[in-house]
């Protein structure tokens, strides 16, 4: 299977060389399979033969909307929506375990009150809170 960049997809669609587009789930991400008169293509990142992945069908739909594509097939046979949650749970468990171990052996960093206040203020500013 050959690859096609977003620009190539847009150009092919503009001249009528896109027969269909399928959004294909692979575990917890989505790729695109494009049917053209020359055969099947996979959407890739610019100039590299690696599939372009989307985190959700909504993200992929927004991308296709920018190109002007309106009809898309959806293949969710291999979708594992819970995979991202499992990865997050594993990451969070490791963080909590590390913090608890640091409490037991006193290796956790202790922030002085003024440094902690500066950290809180920076995070609040980043969120746009006061």
Can you give a write-up of this model?
The chain has 130 residues and is of the alpha/beta class. The protein folds into 2 domains: 2-75, Signal recognition particle alu RNA binding heterodimer, srp9/1 (2-Layer Sandwich), CATH 3.30.720; 82-127, no CATH class. Helix content is 45%, strand content 22%. It is built from 4 helices and 5 strands. The protein has helices spanning 6-14, 57-67, 82-105, 113-127; strands at 2-5, 20-26, 29-36, 39-44, 73-75. It has a 5-stranded mixed β-sheet with strand order 1-4-3-2-5. The model has no long low-confidence stretch (mean pLDDT 87).
Q: Which CATH class of the largest domain?
A: Alpha Beta
Number of strand segments: 5
Helix content: 40-55%
User: What distance lies between the first and last C-alpha atoms, to the nearest angstrom?
Assistant: 53 Å
Keywords:
elongated; 5 strands; 130 residues; 2 domains; single chain; Signal recognition particle alu RNA binding heterodimer, srp9/1; five-stranded mixed β-sheet; alpha/beta
